[in-house]
């Protein structure tokens, strides 16, 4: 018999849950007669290991019938801006590089990823967003950084 405490961990790992995105808003970019319009969506997520930092990601979302059914492949372009929204503190030491957010852009193989890197020399957190495919990734990317006050040392693993 399986332990009940392992079920949530298994589900989280299968679903690829990291930080939870919250939709801030969207704008229509192209009218679709059937199904939702093509859009640019803006989503916010809090860094799961860094209190006081929120990242905002804007990306294209395909509409129409295929978009409504979740079968469309969204574009690879994305933009990111991470900001200090409160006092910065750390829940645990951070690895030098870690994926903090991932979202599916197509039904099978394409994902939008956000990676946090620690620039210990400058006491800053650098966030990179890019998309990848199972076989061939995209060179399209965006980067932002959050400077951490010198009085707060970033704990690194």
UniProtKB/TrEMBL annotation:
Signal peptide bounds: 1-21
Domain of life: Bacteria
InterPro entries, alphabetized: Uncharacterised_CreA
Alphabetical UniProt keywords: Signal
Entries under PANTHER family matching the protein: PROTEIN CREA, PTHR37952
Protein name in UniProt: CreA family protein
